[in-house]
């Protein structure tokens, strides 16, 4: 990590060139969209479908509609979806799917199902003629000069279709996180992007308030990090701000005003889509890096970690990203005024986020999510290998991380 320097000399600049890449991807939001999943899979050439879905979801009303839509298509079903996607599980599943002739993967569930789908597709593409799989060469890394290296998976990964049951929107990105030996590793290749994502807004896609509060904060973090990432540009900024506006309004409507209708769900999903589209170019920074380490080291759910850590990382990054963070705060204030008719009174961007989180019932301290103590030195060590730190607008020292985690454990006054 960077050596300590004076705070006002720490801001990193963006490139003057704007570049935006997006995969060929179909997105549908609405009631009944899940009923078309079988036709989409068939259109992608699918004849043997590898299904990833937790047992509760697969046996529930949404899973029933998926099964009905798949009709007579052959399927290989995996209901063992582990949090944080352990790499050995993805390798085993990749071999199982390859041996069964799976030609399309369908992930039904939250972020773990989506990440497992991408990782499994990568394993199948990287598998050698002898059946061996070397995934280590595919992980994103930080080069010696501070830039990020994203190795290409190679081959032709089987297409992925996702039916999300959470709000992060990460299924739209070309990235997947897997854990190996206590570390979170990232695959990032446009070829792994889902070919179709279907956001079902009917009552069959039950979105519990607690899941919405935390996974929507993950999507909010996508938008905020895209705004201050040194890899971002005017295009990703526009997507991020539009996504943040829809997310903030949708969360206030769904959680604070208790409007659980289809329109409120659609607004949340729309915000998650836009924020993830921004992230496809801008990438994640310090905030997601910390969340990855907390997940790998302490087993913290990714949504919970995102909900808690974001405002404290925003406090830290304000010194190098005051303008974009002020724009984020203005969007959140505007959404609160528009939806609830009552303004947020906090001044700084970090404080605005915490006030907003109190309104929607999202946790703001690590103690609230069952982590009253943290292996701080483990987090410090883990961050040294996180590529998100390289794109942060403010260089990060070990002591910065220690102060950041200490603030998040019990909060700030």
Automatic annotation (TrEMBL):
One of its GO terms (molecular function) is metal ion binding. Belongs to the iron-containing alcohol dehydrogenase family. SUPFAM superfamilies: Dehydroquinate synthase-like. Residues 25-199 form the Alcohol dehydrogenase iron-type/glycerol dehydrogenase GldA domain. Residues 213-408 form the Fe-containing alcohol dehydrogenase-like C-terminal domain. This is Iron-containing alcohol dehydrogenase. InterPro entries: ADH_Fe/GldA (IPR001670), ADH_Fe_C (IPR056798), Alcohol_dehydrogenase_Fe (IPR039697). Gene3D superfamilies: 3.40.50.1970, Dehydroquinate synthase-like - alpha domain (1.20.1090.10). Keywords: Oxidoreductase. Pfam families: ADH_Fe_C (PF25137), Fe-ADH (PF00465).
């Amino acid at each position: 990590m960077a050596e300590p320097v004076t705070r006002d000399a720490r801001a990193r600049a963006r490139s003057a060139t704007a570049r935006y890449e997006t995969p060929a991807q179909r997105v549908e939001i609405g009631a009944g969209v899940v009923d078309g999943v079988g036709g989409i899979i068939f259109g992608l050439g699918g004849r043997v479908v590898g299904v990833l879905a937790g047992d509760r979801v697969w046996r529930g009303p949404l899973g029933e509609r998926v099964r009905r839509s798949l009709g007579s298509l052959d399927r290989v079903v995996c209901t063992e979806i582990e949090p944080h996607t352990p790499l050995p599980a993805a390798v085993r599943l990749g071999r199982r799917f390859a041996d069964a002739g799976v030609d399309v993967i369908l992930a039904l569930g939250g972020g773990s199902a989506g990440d497992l789908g991408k990782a499994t597709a990568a394993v199948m593409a990287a598998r050698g003629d002898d059946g061996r799989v070397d995934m280590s060469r595919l992980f994103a890394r930080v080069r010696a000069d501070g830039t990020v290296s994203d190795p290409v998976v190679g081959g032709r990964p089987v297409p992925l279709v996702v039916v999300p049951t959470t709000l992060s929107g990460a299924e739209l990105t070309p990235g997947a996180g897997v854990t190996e030996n206590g570390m979170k590793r990232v695959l990032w290749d446009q070829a792994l992007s889902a070919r179709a994502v279907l956001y079902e807004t009917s009552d069959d896609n039950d979105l519990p308030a607690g899941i919405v509060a935390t996974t929507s904060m993950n999507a909010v973090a996508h938008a905020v990090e895209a705004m201050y990432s040194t890899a971002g540009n005017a295009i990703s900024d526009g997507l991020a701000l539009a996504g943040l506006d829809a997310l903030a309004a949708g969360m206030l409507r769904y959680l604070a005003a208790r409007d659980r209708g289809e329109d409120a769900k659609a607004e949340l999903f729309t915000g998650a889509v836009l924020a993830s589209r921004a992230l496809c170019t801008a990438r994640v920074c310090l905030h997601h890096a910390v969340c990855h380490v907390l997940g790998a080291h302490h087993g913290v759910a990714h949504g919970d970690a995102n909900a808690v850590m974001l405002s404290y990382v925003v406090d830290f990054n304000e010194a190098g990203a005051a303008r974009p963070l002020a724009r984020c705060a203005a969007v959140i204030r505007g959404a609160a005024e528009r939806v609830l008719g009552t303004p947020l009174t906090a001044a700084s961007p970090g404080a605005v986020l915490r006030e907003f989180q109190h309104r929607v019932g999202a946790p703001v301290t690590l103690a609230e999510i069952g982590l009253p103590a943290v292996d701080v030195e483990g987090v410090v060590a883990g961050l040294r290998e996180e590529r998100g730190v390289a794109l942060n607008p403010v260089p990060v020292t070990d002591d910065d991380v220690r102060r950041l985690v200490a603030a998040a454990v019990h909060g700030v006054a």
